[in-house]
Backbone:
């Protein structure tokens, strides 16, 4: 499902046109709805607890390990999440993606790969829980997963019961081999069997934005993919962010647009690009699912995944998905996310090949005229009280942004505000 390969040989100017057109097409009328249209929450839904008041955070095996998953990896990852500070920073779901499952027994019960998971899923879930983490698995609405393993078709009930018995807290459900199935109806059925278990289980929808989930998935799952798979390269990040931006209205406490899992630390991008990737995901209130080897992180990777000030933007309780407020065409983008305390997170992103000076006026980001305190969320430094009275060049807030990089700030209106 990777979209990035075709971008690699494309000249930059053509890319800019493609990206702009893609964004315009994806943002066309009728693609975004504020309320779920197809499936209004049932009375049971109204009574159910809000499972994701803020975007889920954790780790998923797929981006780094693909099918090479086993219980040693999961135990070591659980240890790493507890020991590196990731859990404390909010990464609490440890999710095994595709390939943990091999077959079904004669009664239809799903079987975890006995060679790779000899201790079984229940014992593994217990271990993950003993670290203070939550445990997640992966399935597919169709008869086979994307990697050809047994999917859930025909077995929704038995699977939900099995997962609850094992103690899972999160399930990602893919859409491979689903042909002409009705996505809202199928995922609602999956939600209902999960609910029937009585165990709170986050449902992560993964139909890649094929069926406009932003119009119906709220109330069905807690997060829904909006695009095809991410790749560990800058063009993929830029393309996905542009597409995900179009559906900002649909996100909010309890239901989030999912632009796919993080690639931070996987080696295909520069430090600046990974910082921009992480900033974009945070400003978009995206689920933050690390996708790198957490047992062997460089200091640079840790400084990104553990940046508490950027994480706080993502996890802000107001739950608004930030969006592009200025698109300068030549590569400068300004993204803004309003936060619960009245401040604004602003990410200046540079898609161009060279450094760009970018500026913003308070009126463009909803800050009232007058002084405002600005803090740099990557330098972890206050950068003064700035004013924008709309009179002179000096009075607008301007920053230099590295190529394929970001400057991310938080701005509090009023000089004295903390
Ligand atoms: C699809 C999903 C990915 C991953 C793989 C596993 O491509 O979009 O995120 O789960 O399947 O096979």
Residues:
């Amino acid at each position: 499902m990777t979209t990035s390969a075709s971008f690699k040989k494309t000249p930059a100017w053509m890319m800019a046109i493609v990206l702009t057109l893609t964004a315009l097409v994806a943002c066309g009328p009728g693609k975004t709805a504020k309320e779920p249209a197809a499936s209004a929450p049932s009375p049971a839904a109204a009574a159910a607890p809000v499972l994701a008041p803020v975007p889920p955070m954790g780790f998923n095996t797929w981006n780094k390990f693909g099918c090479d998953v086993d219980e040693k990896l999961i135990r070591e990852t659980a240890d790493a999440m507890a020991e590196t500070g990731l859990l404390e920073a909010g990464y609490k779901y440890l999710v095994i993606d595709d390939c943990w499952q091999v077959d079904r027994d004669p009664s239809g019960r799903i079987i975890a790969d006995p060679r790779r998971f000899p201790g079984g899923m229940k014992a593994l879930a217990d271990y993950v829980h003993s670290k203070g983490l939550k445990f997640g698995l992966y399935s597919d609405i169709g008869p086979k997963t994307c990697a050809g393993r047994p999917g859930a078709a025909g077995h929704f009930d038995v699977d939900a019961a099995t997962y609850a018995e094992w103690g899972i807290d999160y399930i990602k459900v893919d859409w491979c081999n689903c042909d002409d199935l009705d996505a809202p109806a199928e995922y609602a059925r999956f939600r209902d069997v999960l609910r029937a278990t009585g165990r709170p289980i986050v449902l992560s929808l993964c139909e890649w934005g094929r069926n406009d989930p932003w119009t119906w998935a709220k109330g069905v799952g807690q997060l829904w993919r909006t695009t095809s798979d991410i790749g560990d390269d800058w063009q993929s990040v830029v393309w996905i962010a542009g597409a995900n931006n179009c559906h900002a209205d649909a996100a909010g406490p309890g239901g989030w647009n999912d632009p796919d899992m993080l690639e931070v630390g996987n080696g295909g991008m520069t430090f600046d690009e990974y910082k921009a990737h992480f900033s974009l995901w945070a400003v978009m209130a995206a689920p933050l699912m690390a996708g790198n080897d957490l047992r062997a992180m460089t200091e640079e990777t840790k400084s990104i995944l553990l940046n508490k000030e950027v994480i706080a933007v993502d996890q802000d309780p107001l739950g608004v998905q930030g969006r592009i407020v200025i698109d300068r065409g030549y590569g400068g983008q300004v993204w803004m996310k309003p936060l619960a305390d009245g401040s604004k997170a602003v990410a200046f992103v540079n898609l161009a090949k060279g450094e760009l000076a970018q500026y913003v006026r308070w009126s463009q980001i909803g800050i009232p005229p007058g002084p405002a305190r600005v803090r740099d969320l990557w330098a972890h430094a206050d950068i003064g009280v700035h004013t924008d009275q709309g009179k002179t060049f000096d009075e607008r807030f301007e920053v230099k942004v590295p190529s394929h990089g970001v400057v991310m700030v938080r701005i509090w209106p009023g000089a004295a505000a903390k």
The pocket of alpha-D-galactopyranose is lined by residues 1, 62, 97-98, 145-147, 174, 206, 229 (CB under 6 Å). Confidence is low (pLDDT under 50) at residues 1-26, 30-41. DSSP finds twelve helices and 18 strands in the chain.
